[in-house]
Design a protein that fits this description.
429 residues, alpha/beta, Alpha-Beta Plaits, Rossmann fold, nine-stranded mixed beta sheet, four-stranded antiparallel beta sheet, 19 helices, binds S-adenosylmethionine
């Protein structure tokens, strides 16, 4: 089977229909037979989306006029061809012939693809020079996003673009109910899986090479889960005590819900998410880990529809955000996110935070989290909140990770190998 065909379909779902890469891969990889085929198609799709803006720029130099919208499938094939030539270890003649062979009914496109890819091979050095001179192509980010990140992070922006285009390491969260990071690391070593302990957490192990989860010892028994180090920092920041009532708003797929329960199994956990389908993922995760929580499908910003009137001691508000800190895992964000989304998200975050605040007991702790790099969604949001809520105050986060902001703490993508994240901890007077 020519694997460029399923790859084209997956990328078309993302680039034409606007679906997420995770969703498109779920469906698109299912019919493939072997793990090796799946891995190749997945690598191709991730790679093309990481380099999308760069590849698109090169294509614009190679074509005398752009391809029509209805020939988007052909455009994707050429982008994949250029990607294979630039980055994958596919031999040039194979990259060209296999890409040409993946053309379906549009036989006119065979000549075009063949010509374009051969032209690229002949003058690759020249095209690479052009890439260096064009900011969008060089960083492989859309211009609006370059502007936003440069606005907030100045000189650090270039390294953020670079980090965003790297593959993230696979990180495990060990389940403290069953084991410790040191013991699980030893167990991994026995299975020839090499890992590093993250010293400022109790639970994180970074794997040298990613593996399928079914290769992890006692995975089905819940000894370990896959979760980036930055996300693992949430649970300890909540300063949990036995038997507390904890609310996880915006909880799906439940990574942090589970981490909180593993750290303090005696708590009474309520987890809310607006999407029933995603809530199902929390159910599955908790089932594997043999943990339990009250799960509610509801709008977090409208508690009168679901709240039982008893205050919570701890609340995690892991709001929907631009997700610019997790582009390493989801490179489709660079092509799907729109500049106009940001203000809408900032308002949603403010609404959810406002609603959450009224559910927190006096003396309670609320942790606000985003996987964003933008100050609008992070420190500016919390500064405004503190100003408008005289009964709130910041409980500063002292830590060996991230950098303190005017309020809260920011992790920039790639800091200590982590995703970009922001945390602010608030107390109630
Ligand atoms: C950043 S993700 C949460 C990740 C999760 N905390 C974890 O660690 O696995 C944000 C979640 O917010 C949910 N969401 C968005 N708007 C919401 C709303 N108004 N009420 C409740 N959940 C919402 C989304 O469905 C999504 O699952």
């Amino acid at each position: 089977m020519n694997l460029r065909k399923p790859a084209t379909q997956i990328l078309s779902c993302v680039l034409k229909e606007g679906r997420s890469l995770t969703n498109a891969l779920d469906k698109g990889l299912a019919p493939l037979d072997t793990a090796q085929d799946k891995a190749f198609v997945q690598a191709l799709c991730y790679g093309v989306l990481r380099d999308y803006h760069r590849l698109d720029f090169i294509l614009s130099l190679l074509l005398s006029k752009p391809l029509r919208n209805k020939d988007n499938d052909i455009k994707i094939l050429v982008l994949m061809g250029i990607y294979q030539l630039r980055t994958m270890r596919v031999k040039p003649h194979a990259a060209v012939s296999e890409t040409v062979a993946a053309v379906g009914k549009k036989s006119w496109a065979k000549k075009l693809i063949n010509g374009v890819l051969r032209h690229y091979i002949r003058e690759q050095a020249l095209f690479d020079q052009q890439v260096e001179k064009n900011t969008v192509a060089k960083y492989s980010h859309p211009q609006w996003l370059i502007n936003c990140i440069e606005h907030d992070w100045g000189k650090q922006a270039a390294s953020l673009f670079e980090q965003n285009n790297q593959a993230a390491p696979m990180v495990l969260r060990v389940n403290l109910i069953h084991t410790t990071a040191t013991d699980y690391q030893a167990l991994l070593t026995q299975h020839a899986i090499i890992s590093t302990i993250v010293p400022f957490t109790q639970t994180a192990l970074i794997l040298k090479h990613a593996v399928a989860v079914d290769q992890l010892p006692h995975f089905t028994k819940g000894w370990a889960s896959v979760q980036d180090t930055a996300a693992q920092l949430a649970a300890p920041l909540l300063q949990l005590q036995e038997n507390q009532r904890v609310l996880d708003l915006c909880a799906a797929p439940g990574g942090k819900t589970a981490a909180i329960l593993e750290l303090e199994p005696s708590i009474k956990m309520t987890a809310v998410d607006i999407e029933e389908k995603r809530l199902q993922r929390i159910r599955e995760n908790l089932q594997r880990l043999k943990l339990s929580a009250t799960l509610i499908t509801a709008d977090a910003s409208d508690p009168k529809t679901w709240w039982d009137g008893i205050f919570f001691d701890r609340i995690l508000v892991d709001v929907p955000c631009s997700a610019l800190g997790v582009i390493r895992h989801h490179p489709d964000i660079k092509v799907l996110r729109r500049e106009s989304d940001i203000n809408v998200l900032v308002q949603q975050q403010a609404d959810i935070l406002e609603a959450a605040w009224h559910l927190l007991t006096v003396g309670g702790v609320l942790l606000y989290a985003t996987c964003s790099l933008l100050k609008q969604e992070n420190q500016n949001q919390i500064e405004t909140f503190l100003k408008n809520h005289p009964d709130s105050f910041e409980i500063p986060i002292e830590a060996d990770w991230g950098t303190p902001q005017t309020v809260g703490r920011q992790i920039l993508t790639g800091d200590q190998a982590m995703d970009g994240f922001y945390y602010a901890r608030l107390g109630k007077k």
